[in-house]
Structures are given as C-alpha cells and as structure tokens.
Amino acid sequence: MRWKYAVKFKENEKLSCKQSRLLRSEVKTPLLDKNIPYYNVIMRRRSGIAASSFSLPSGYTYAWFEPGNEKKWAEIETSVGEFTTVEQAHLYFREHYLPYVDEVNYLHTQTWSYKAIGLYIQAGFEILENESFNGYQNDYEKAMPFIEMKLRKG
User: Fold this and answer.
1) What is the C-alpha separation between 24 and 78, in angstroms, rounded?
2) Which of 118, 129, 103, 124 is nearest to 40 (CA)?
3) What is the pLDDT of residues 7-36, one digit of tens each?
4) Tens digit of pLDDT for each residue in 62-118?
5) Is the pTM here over 0.90, yes or no?
6) Cα 145 to Cα 36, 110, 127, 152, distances in angstroms
7) Of residues 35, 46, 98, the one with CA closest to residue 68
8) How many domains does the chain have?
C-alpha cells in the first residue's frame, strides 16, 4: 500500500515534542476542528487518476509509505492531535491499515479533518456516498453539509 504524506524531518529522525509543537505552530489554524460534529468520511482514489500539482511550504516533502514507516505515520498523527500517544496511533495503524494493504485506493477520515479532505480531493480522491471498507461506517449524508460549508469558506 502506498500512502503519501508530508514530512518535515530527516529520514530516521524522530519527531520530538518540541518539533511537534513547532510544526503545529507553523499552521495558522488547528489541523483538527473539533467544533463541528465528528462524522466518518470514506474516500477513494481511482487508479490512473493524476494528482493535482500543488506545492508544499518550504522544508516539507512528499514521501510514499513504505513498510517500516508505521512509526513515522504514528508520530505525525499524534503531532496533529489525532491521538494522544504515538503508541495509540501505531496500534491503530497496525490494526486498521496494514491488514488492508491491497486496498490502496481507499481512505477513512472524518469531518474534523476537512482541511485534509480538501488536500485529498486535490490528490485525486473522491468522497464516497455509499461504499466503505474495513468496517467503517460511512456518514456521507451527515458529513457533507459540514464539509461543503467548511471547504467553501476555506
């Protein structure tokens, strides 16, 4: 499975608490908006669809997920407030993503991450109305009014 994520640290470098705070301080608004209801959002990227080209801030690069990068994913997810500990994030990754490596085109997210949803759309993902994977509930009908409102403002 190949997930793309933005990283600002060198290979084999751990993201310290200080780096995590600095990374979050570079973002002018919180990455998660917990002021809106949490609803599951399921997305898919069809094979062969080219991702839109957009630039990252200076010092950031894209990297494809490769086996062994689970800990880095966990550090990134913890740094943005998705999990309280790296261990929780790492366990979640092992249970909910690694068993489904062949389902490369599916993505689970939530309304709190509407900013990321905007990036996923630019990367060629589409929000699914009915489909799901890995047992996630698809809250399309409940989620879309919040996503549309937030992305319009964005």
Assistant:
1) 11
2) 129
3) 333 333 444 443 344 344 444 455 678 889
4) 666 677 888 888 898 888 788 899 999 999 888 877 776 665 678 889 999 898 888
5) no
6) 11, 13, 13, 11
7) 98
8) 1
Alpha-carbon span 131 to 140, nearest angstrom:
10
Task: Return the amino acid letter for 36.
Answer: I
3-state secondary structure of 63: strand
Give 59 or 40, the one with higher predicted confidence: 40
Residue found under tokens 């249970």: 95
Domain that holds residue 58: 4-153
DSSP 94-154: HHHTGGGTT-TTEEEEEGGGHHHHHHHHHTTEEE-SS--STT----HHHHHHHHHHHHHH-
User: From residue 45, how far is each of 5, 84, 101 by CA, in Å?
Assistant: 15, 29, 14
